Amino acid sequence: MQRTRIVVKVGSSSLTDPLSGLLSLDRVHMVADQLAAILPDPSYEVILVSSGAIAAGRARLGWNATRTLPEKQAASAVGQSLLIEMYQREFACQGRIVAQILLTRSDMEDRRRFVNIRNTLETLLAANVLPIVNENDTVSVNEIRFGDNDTLAALVAILICAQHLILLTDIDGLYTEDPRSDPQARRIVEVANIDSYVRTLGGDSGSSVGTGGMRTKIRAAEMATASGIAVSIAAASEPNVIQRLLLGEEVGTRFVARKDRLNARQSWLAHGSRSTGRLFVDEGAVNALRKAGGSLLAPGIERIEGQFDEGAIVDLMDSHGECIGKGIVSLSAHDLEYFVTMRSNRDQLRGLPEVVHRNDMALLS
Protein backbone atom coordinates (compact mmCIF):
# COMPACT_ATOMS: atom_id res chain seq x y z
CA MET A 1 0.00 0.00 0.00
CA GLN A 2 1.28 3.45 -0.97
CA ARG A 3 1.56 5.56 2.18
CA THR A 4 1.22 9.35 2.23
CA ARG A 5 4.13 11.03 3.98
CA ILE A 6 3.32 14.09 6.02
CA VAL A 7 5.61 16.54 7.82
CA VAL A 8 3.81 18.53 10.52
CA LYS A 9 5.58 21.57 11.96
CA VAL A 10 4.37 23.29 15.09
CA GLY A 11 5.90 26.58 16.20
CA SER A 12 6.77 27.96 19.62
CA SER A 13 3.81 30.35 19.54
CA SER A 14 1.46 27.35 19.26
CA LEU A 15 3.05 25.53 22.22
CA THR A 16 3.45 28.36 24.73
CA ASP A 17 1.02 30.31 26.89
CA PRO A 18 0.51 33.74 25.25
CA LEU A 19 0.62 35.57 28.58
CA SER A 20 3.46 33.88 30.43
CA GLY A 21 5.49 32.71 27.44
CA LEU A 22 5.97 29.36 29.21
CA LEU A 23 5.58 26.01 27.49
CA SER A 24 1.96 24.95 27.94
CA LEU A 25 1.19 21.31 28.77
CA ASP A 26 -2.35 21.84 27.46
CA ARG A 27 -1.04 23.03 24.11
CA VAL A 28 1.44 20.16 23.80
CA HIS A 29 -1.46 17.83 24.60
CA MET A 30 -3.55 19.51 21.91
CA VAL A 31 -0.87 18.88 19.26
CA ALA A 32 -0.48 15.26 20.40
CA ASP A 33 -4.25 14.77 20.15
CA GLN A 34 -4.22 16.19 16.62
CA LEU A 35 -1.56 13.67 15.59
CA ALA A 36 -3.26 10.84 17.47
CA ALA A 37 -6.20 11.13 15.06
CA ILE A 38 -4.06 10.14 12.05
CA LEU A 39 -1.14 8.09 13.44
CA PRO A 40 -3.13 4.81 13.65
CA ASP A 41 -4.12 5.15 9.98
CA PRO A 42 -1.76 2.87 8.00
CA SER A 43 -2.08 5.07 4.91
CA TYR A 44 -0.06 7.87 6.59
CA GLU A 45 3.55 8.24 7.72
CA VAL A 46 4.17 11.27 9.95
CA ILE A 47 7.19 13.28 11.03
CA LEU A 48 6.78 16.07 13.59
CA VAL A 49 9.02 19.15 13.50
CA SER A 50 8.57 20.87 16.85
CA SER A 51 9.86 24.14 18.23
CA GLY A 52 9.65 25.01 21.92
CA ALA A 53 12.97 23.90 23.43
CA ILE A 54 14.27 27.41 24.08
CA ALA A 55 10.93 28.49 25.58
CA ALA A 56 10.89 25.40 27.83
CA GLY A 57 14.46 25.93 28.99
CA ARG A 58 13.95 29.62 29.59
CA ALA A 59 11.03 28.85 31.88
CA ARG A 60 12.97 26.21 33.84
CA LEU A 61 15.90 28.60 34.26
CA GLY A 62 13.61 31.44 35.36
CA TRP A 63 14.75 33.76 32.57
CA ASN A 64 12.34 36.34 31.17
CA ALA A 65 14.16 36.47 27.82
CA THR A 66 17.12 35.02 25.91
CA ARG A 67 18.89 37.79 24.04
CA THR A 68 22.32 36.40 23.19
CA LEU A 69 23.20 33.27 21.24
CA PRO A 70 24.92 31.61 24.27
CA GLU A 71 21.78 32.23 26.35
CA LYS A 72 19.62 30.62 23.65
CA GLN A 73 22.01 27.68 23.44
CA ALA A 74 21.91 27.22 27.21
CA ALA A 75 18.12 27.46 27.32
CA SER A 76 17.89 24.93 24.49
CA ALA A 77 20.24 22.52 26.31
CA VAL A 78 17.91 22.59 29.33
CA GLY A 79 14.64 22.72 27.40
CA GLN A 80 15.18 20.08 24.74
CA SER A 81 15.00 17.21 27.23
CA LEU A 82 11.91 18.78 28.84
CA LEU A 83 10.19 19.10 25.46
CA ILE A 84 10.89 15.53 24.35
CA GLU A 85 9.85 14.23 27.78
CA MET A 86 6.45 15.90 27.35
CA TYR A 87 6.01 14.30 23.95
CA GLN A 88 7.13 10.90 25.26
CA ARG A 89 4.47 11.01 27.98
CA GLU A 90 1.78 12.11 25.56
CA PHE A 91 2.44 9.44 22.94
CA ALA A 92 3.17 6.66 25.45
CA CYS A 93 -0.53 6.85 26.32
CA GLN A 94 -1.22 6.00 22.69
CA GLY A 95 1.34 3.18 22.56
CA ARG A 96 3.58 5.13 20.21
CA ILE A 97 7.37 5.32 20.51
CA VAL A 98 8.97 8.68 19.67
CA ALA A 99 12.51 9.44 18.53
CA GLN A 100 14.42 12.69 18.85
CA ILE A 101 16.34 14.02 15.81
CA LEU A 102 18.41 17.20 16.28
CA LEU A 103 19.84 18.79 13.15
CA THR A 104 21.99 21.71 12.04
CA ARG A 105 22.14 23.28 8.60
CA SER A 106 25.54 21.66 7.96
CA ASP A 107 23.91 18.24 8.38
CA MET A 108 21.75 19.02 5.36
CA GLU A 109 24.53 20.63 3.32
CA ASP A 110 26.79 17.58 3.38
CA ARG A 111 25.39 15.09 0.86
CA ARG A 112 26.59 12.01 2.79
CA ARG A 113 25.09 13.20 6.07
CA PHE A 114 21.92 14.18 4.21
CA VAL A 115 21.56 10.59 2.96
CA ASN A 116 22.37 9.17 6.41
CA ILE A 117 19.61 11.29 7.98
CA ARG A 118 17.19 10.07 5.34
CA ASN A 119 18.14 6.44 6.03
CA THR A 120 17.57 6.94 9.77
CA LEU A 121 14.15 8.52 9.21
CA GLU A 122 13.16 5.78 6.76
CA THR A 123 14.06 3.13 9.34
CA LEU A 124 12.12 4.88 12.11
CA LEU A 125 9.04 5.24 9.91
CA ALA A 126 9.22 1.58 8.92
CA ALA A 127 9.24 0.71 12.66
CA ASN A 128 6.13 2.88 13.29
CA VAL A 129 8.15 5.31 15.39
CA LEU A 130 7.22 9.01 15.38
CA PRO A 131 10.37 11.07 14.63
CA ILE A 132 10.37 14.46 16.37
CA VAL A 133 12.80 16.86 14.70
CA ASN A 134 14.18 20.14 15.98
CA GLU A 135 17.16 22.35 15.28
CA ASN A 136 20.17 21.53 17.44
CA ASP A 137 20.27 25.01 18.97
CA THR A 138 22.81 23.93 21.59
CA VAL A 139 25.63 23.73 19.01
CA SER A 140 24.23 25.90 16.23
CA VAL A 141 25.93 29.17 15.38
CA ASN A 142 24.82 31.69 12.77
CA GLU A 143 26.82 30.01 10.00
CA ILE A 144 25.08 26.65 10.43
CA ARG A 145 21.63 27.70 11.61
CA PHE A 146 18.42 27.11 9.71
CA GLY A 147 17.21 30.31 11.37
CA ASP A 148 13.65 29.06 11.70
CA ASN A 149 11.88 25.72 11.89
CA ASP A 150 9.75 26.48 8.82
CA THR A 151 12.89 26.14 6.70
CA LEU A 152 13.92 23.05 8.65
CA ALA A 153 10.48 21.48 8.09
CA ALA A 154 10.62 22.18 4.34
CA LEU A 155 14.07 20.58 4.10
CA VAL A 156 12.91 17.53 6.08
CA ALA A 157 9.92 17.21 3.73
CA ILE A 158 12.28 17.39 0.74
CA LEU A 159 14.68 14.93 2.36
CA ILE A 160 12.06 12.18 2.84
CA CYS A 161 10.10 12.98 -0.36
CA ALA A 162 6.93 13.87 1.56
CA GLN A 163 3.64 14.56 -0.19
CA HIS A 164 2.32 17.15 2.28
CA LEU A 165 3.89 19.73 4.59
CA ILE A 166 1.60 21.19 7.25
CA LEU A 167 2.76 24.35 9.06
CA LEU A 168 0.73 24.89 12.21
CA THR A 169 0.86 28.38 13.69
CA ASP A 170 -1.22 30.88 15.67
CA ILE A 171 -2.85 32.37 12.53
CA ASP A 172 -5.32 30.38 10.43
CA GLY A 173 -3.66 30.96 7.08
CA LEU A 174 -2.28 33.60 4.72
CA TYR A 175 -4.24 36.86 4.58
CA THR A 176 -4.37 39.79 2.19
CA GLU A 177 -3.57 42.02 5.19
CA ASP A 178 -2.70 41.44 8.85
CA PRO A 179 -5.99 40.13 10.34
CA ARG A 180 -4.92 41.25 13.82
CA SER A 181 -5.04 44.89 12.78
CA ASP A 182 -7.22 45.02 9.65
CA PRO A 183 -10.84 43.76 9.91
CA GLN A 184 -11.08 43.80 6.10
CA ALA A 185 -8.31 41.24 5.75
CA ARG A 186 -9.33 38.22 3.68
CA ARG A 187 -7.94 34.72 4.09
CA ILE A 188 -6.49 33.23 0.90
CA VAL A 189 -7.79 29.68 0.52
CA GLU A 190 -5.39 28.49 -2.19
CA VAL A 191 -2.17 29.71 -3.77
CA ALA A 192 -1.46 28.16 -7.17
CA ASN A 193 1.78 30.05 -7.77
CA ILE A 194 4.07 31.86 -5.34
CA ASP A 195 4.83 35.11 -7.14
CA SER A 196 6.10 38.52 -6.05
CA TYR A 197 2.62 39.52 -4.79
CA VAL A 198 2.37 36.47 -2.52
CA ARG A 199 5.86 37.13 -1.18
CA THR A 200 4.88 40.68 -0.22
CA LEU A 201 2.12 39.29 2.00
CA GLY A 202 4.71 37.85 4.40
CA GLY A 203 5.43 39.92 7.51
CA ASP A 204 7.58 39.75 10.61
CA SER A 205 6.93 37.32 13.42
CA GLY A 206 3.91 38.23 15.51
CA SER A 207 5.20 36.34 18.54
CA SER A 208 7.98 37.09 21.02
CA VAL A 209 8.82 33.38 21.41
CA GLY A 210 9.01 32.39 17.75
CA THR A 211 11.84 33.04 15.29
CA GLY A 212 9.74 32.81 12.14
CA GLY A 213 6.79 34.66 10.68
CA MET A 214 4.57 34.41 7.62
CA ARG A 215 7.54 35.39 5.48
CA THR A 216 9.48 32.29 6.49
CA LYS A 217 6.40 30.12 5.93
CA ILE A 218 5.99 31.45 2.40
CA ARG A 219 9.67 30.78 1.77
CA ALA A 220 9.27 27.23 3.13
CA ALA A 221 6.21 26.76 0.90
CA GLU A 222 8.19 27.95 -2.09
CA MET A 223 10.95 25.41 -1.39
CA ALA A 224 8.54 22.53 -0.82
CA THR A 225 6.13 23.16 -3.70
CA ALA A 226 9.07 23.41 -6.12
CA SER A 227 9.87 19.84 -5.06
CA GLY A 228 6.32 18.61 -5.70
CA ILE A 229 5.13 18.85 -2.08
CA ALA A 230 1.75 20.41 -1.21
CA VAL A 231 1.89 22.86 1.71
CA SER A 232 -0.78 24.01 4.14
CA ILE A 233 -0.64 26.83 6.69
CA ALA A 234 -3.28 26.58 9.40
CA ALA A 235 -4.00 27.39 13.05
CA ALA A 236 -2.85 24.77 15.55
CA SER A 237 -5.90 25.61 17.69
CA GLU A 238 -8.38 24.71 14.92
CA PRO A 239 -10.27 21.54 15.95
CA ASN A 240 -9.11 18.41 14.08
CA VAL A 241 -7.14 20.65 11.73
CA ILE A 242 -4.65 18.03 10.50
CA GLN A 243 -7.34 15.48 9.71
CA ARG A 244 -9.49 18.08 7.98
CA LEU A 245 -6.59 19.29 5.86
CA LEU A 246 -5.86 15.74 4.73
CA LEU A 247 -9.54 15.29 3.83
CA GLY A 248 -9.32 18.33 1.57
CA GLU A 249 -11.41 20.77 3.61
CA GLU A 250 -10.83 24.47 2.97
CA VAL A 251 -8.98 25.07 6.23
CA GLY A 252 -6.13 27.55 6.36
CA THR A 253 -4.21 28.25 3.13
CA ARG A 254 -3.08 25.55 0.73
CA PHE A 255 -0.11 25.99 -1.61
CA VAL A 256 -0.37 23.78 -4.68
CA ALA A 257 2.59 21.54 -5.50
CA ARG A 258 4.26 22.33 -8.80
CA LYS A 259 3.87 19.76 -11.54
CA ASP A 260 7.25 20.62 -13.08
CA ARG A 261 8.91 19.67 -9.84
CA LEU A 262 12.60 19.22 -9.17
CA ASN A 263 13.76 15.65 -8.64
CA ALA A 264 15.24 14.57 -5.28
CA ARG A 265 18.85 15.38 -6.20
CA GLN A 266 17.91 18.73 -7.74
CA SER A 267 15.86 19.60 -4.64
CA TRP A 268 18.89 18.99 -2.42
CA LEU A 269 21.07 21.06 -4.76
CA ALA A 270 18.61 23.95 -4.85
CA HIS A 271 17.64 24.10 -1.18
CA GLY A 272 19.88 21.89 0.96
CA SER A 273 23.38 22.54 -0.32
CA ARG A 274 25.69 25.47 0.45
CA SER A 275 27.35 27.36 -2.39
CA THR A 276 31.02 28.30 -2.26
CA GLY A 277 31.09 30.61 -5.27
CA ARG A 278 29.09 32.30 -8.01
CA LEU A 279 29.14 32.15 -11.80
CA PHE A 280 27.68 35.10 -13.69
CA VAL A 281 26.38 34.03 -17.09
CA ASP A 282 25.24 36.00 -20.12
CA GLU A 283 21.70 36.20 -21.49
CA GLY A 284 22.36 33.62 -24.19
CA ALA A 285 23.48 31.10 -21.61
CA VAL A 286 20.43 31.82 -19.43
CA ASN A 287 18.13 31.13 -22.36
CA ALA A 288 20.01 27.93 -23.21
CA LEU A 289 19.69 26.71 -19.63
CA ARG A 290 16.05 27.63 -19.12
CA LYS A 291 14.51 27.03 -22.53
CA ALA A 292 16.71 24.39 -24.16
CA GLY A 293 17.67 22.46 -21.02
CA GLY A 294 21.33 22.65 -21.94
CA SER A 295 24.51 22.47 -19.88
CA LEU A 296 26.50 25.56 -18.93
CA LEU A 297 29.50 26.04 -21.23
CA ALA A 298 32.58 28.19 -20.67
CA PRO A 299 31.75 30.80 -23.38
CA GLY A 300 28.57 31.73 -21.50
CA ILE A 301 30.39 32.76 -18.31
CA GLU A 302 31.08 36.48 -17.90
CA ARG A 303 32.81 36.42 -14.52
CA ILE A 304 33.20 34.35 -11.37
CA GLU A 305 33.28 35.04 -7.64
CA GLY A 306 34.86 32.92 -4.92
CA GLN A 307 37.58 30.31 -4.69
CA PHE A 308 36.47 26.74 -5.26
CA ASP A 309 37.71 23.41 -6.59
CA GLU A 310 36.26 20.96 -9.07
CA GLY A 311 33.07 19.39 -7.72
CA ALA A 312 32.10 22.47 -5.70
CA ILE A 313 28.55 23.83 -5.63
CA VAL A 314 28.05 27.34 -7.00
CA ASP A 315 25.20 29.79 -7.57
CA LEU A 316 24.36 30.57 -11.18
CA MET A 317 23.64 34.28 -11.59
CA ASP A 318 22.18 36.21 -14.51
CA SER A 319 23.52 39.58 -15.68
CA HIS A 320 21.10 41.38 -13.30
CA GLY A 321 22.56 39.62 -10.26
CA GLU A 322 19.54 37.32 -9.78
CA CYS A 323 20.22 33.71 -8.80
CA ILE A 324 18.73 31.42 -11.46
CA GLY A 325 19.96 28.14 -10.02
CA LYS A 326 22.76 26.10 -8.50
CA GLY A 327 25.11 23.54 -9.91
CA ILE A 328 28.19 21.37 -9.44
CA VAL A 329 31.19 22.67 -11.39
CA SER A 330 33.59 20.46 -13.31
CA LEU A 331 36.39 23.06 -13.27
CA SER A 332 38.07 24.99 -10.46
CA ALA A 333 37.80 28.75 -10.00
CA HIS A 334 41.46 29.07 -11.08
CA ASP A 335 40.80 27.28 -14.39
CA LEU A 336 37.59 29.18 -15.00
CA GLU A 337 39.36 32.51 -14.47
CA TYR A 338 41.69 31.55 -17.31
CA PHE A 339 38.78 30.82 -19.65
CA VAL A 340 37.00 34.04 -18.69
CA THR A 341 40.17 35.97 -19.53
CA MET A 342 40.33 34.23 -22.90
CA ARG A 343 36.70 35.13 -23.50
CA SER A 344 37.31 38.80 -22.71
CA ASN A 345 40.22 38.75 -25.16
CA ARG A 346 37.81 37.31 -27.77
CA ASP A 347 39.87 34.13 -28.04
CA GLN A 348 38.04 31.09 -29.36
CA LEU A 349 36.88 28.66 -26.68
CA ARG A 350 36.34 25.29 -28.29
CA GLY A 351 36.43 21.67 -27.23
CA LEU A 352 35.97 22.45 -23.52
CA PRO A 353 34.01 20.27 -21.11
CA GLU A 354 30.70 21.49 -19.70
CA VAL A 355 31.34 23.75 -16.74
CA VAL A 356 28.07 22.57 -15.16
CA HIS A 357 26.39 19.55 -16.74
CA ARG A 358 22.59 19.72 -16.95
CA ASN A 359 22.36 16.60 -14.74
CA ASP A 360 24.30 18.47 -12.03
CA MET A 361 22.10 21.57 -12.11
CA ALA A 362 18.92 22.78 -10.40
CA LEU A 363 17.24 25.80 -11.94
CA LEU A 364 14.99 28.03 -9.86
CA SER A 365 11.73 29.47 -11.13
List the uncertain runs: 205-212
Structural class: alpha/beta
Instruction: Give the distance, in angstroms, between the N- and C-terminal Cα atoms.
Output: 34 Å
> What is the helical fraction, as a range of percent?
25-40%
CATH H-level homologous superfamily name of the largest domain: Acetylglutamate kinase-like
Shape: globular
Query: Largest sheet, if any?
Result: 8 strands, mixed
CATH fold node name of the largest domain = Carbamate kinase
Q: What CATH architecture of the largest domain would you give? A: 3-Layer(aba) Sandwich
Work out the number of β strands.
Answer: 13
Mean pLDDT, nearest integer? 87
What's the domain count?
2
So what's the CATH class of the largest domain?
A: Alpha Beta
Rg, Å, rounded: 22 Å
Q: Estimate the strand proportion.
A: 15-25%
Please characterize this protein's 3D structure.
With 365 residues, the protein is α/β, with parallel strands linked by helices. The chain has two domains: 4-266, Carbamate kinase (3-Layer(aba) Sandwich); 275-363, PUA domain (Archaeosine Trna-guanine Transglycosylase, Chain: A, domain 4). 37% of the residues lie in helices and 18% in strands. The protein has 13 helices and 13 strands. It has helices spanning 12-15, 25-36, 53-61, 69-92, 105-109, 111-126, 149-159, 196-200, 214-226, 241-246, 264-272, 283-290, 333-344; strands spanning 4-10, 44-50, 98-103, 130-135, 164-169, 190-191, 230-235, 253-255, 277-281, 301-305, 313-317, 323-328, 361-363. The strands form two sheets. It has an eight-stranded mixed β-sheet, sandwiched between helices. α7 (149-159) packs parallel to α9. The longest helix is centred in the first third of the chain and has 24 residues, at 69-92. The radius of gyration is 22 Å and the shape is globular.
